[in-house]
Design brief:
Layout (H helix, E strand, L loop, with lengths): L1 H24 L14 H30 L1
Helix pairs in contact: 1-2
């Protein structure tokens, strides 16, 4: 159960970073001197990072639930 929790926590962190990168690319947060600020490439990168985080989170939850059943 602990492994699933760790994987899920990593997924949540990756989601948070993806959202931050997405918002920086859209000029919502971050310093204006950042290379990610107002950069359309980081909008797309942030989306993919957040999607990857969702997949990792789901994997961690699946591991936890599978371990609980056994």
């Amino acid at each position: 159960m602990r492994r699933g929790f760790i994987v899920a926590a990593i997924g949540a962190i990756v989601i948070a970073f993806g959202i931050i990168f997405f918002l920086q690319g859209n000029s919502v947060v971050g310093p204006t001197t950042s290379f990610m600020y107002s950069n359309p490439r980081w909008v797309v990168n942030g989306e993919w990072i957040a999607i990857s985080g969702v997949i990792i989170l789901a994997l961690g939850l699946g591991i936890s639930l599978r371990h609980l059943k056994s």
